[in-house]
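A further point concerns the way the authors explain their paired sequence and structure data. Nothing conveys this as quickly as seeing an actual entry. An entry of this sort, consisting of the sequence and the corresponding backbone structure tokens, reads as follows:
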Amino acid sequence: MTNRRGLECKLGHGRIVLPAEEIELLGEYPVGPRLPIGDRIEYSIGVWSGEPVLSVSLTTHEVQPSRLANGALLLVRAGGIRWALEIDQALGLVEISTIARGVTQMPWRRAATLSDQRSSQFIDVRMMVSALDGGIA
């Protein structure tokens, strides 16, 4: 894969890259408490422009009845509901030179080399939603 566009995002103490073509909107939206599914990934029900979304967080948050989240509304749908991936901050568009294969446990978390030779974690959004939808459906 060469010269694919991605959105570089701050997430916790690090950075991730999302495929730009899989993102519909960036914004802030309210989410409810963490759902009791999954160990490493947090799921919450949120509301984006009046529509329910399944909000996925790759970082942990304090237990709260509700909070505001920053995220990327994904174009991918699964299970009849829209999905959003929580991020801390969008940093800008980048060119991705190469994307490595993912590890067996989470194949959707992949290493990428950007055109400026920096390394980053690439989140394969379609693969992530497919894998996570199978785990919660």
About this structure: The beta strands are 4-11, 14-19, 23-31, 42-48, 51-57, 67-78, 81-86, 89-99, 109-114, 119-123. The chain has one domain: 4-136.
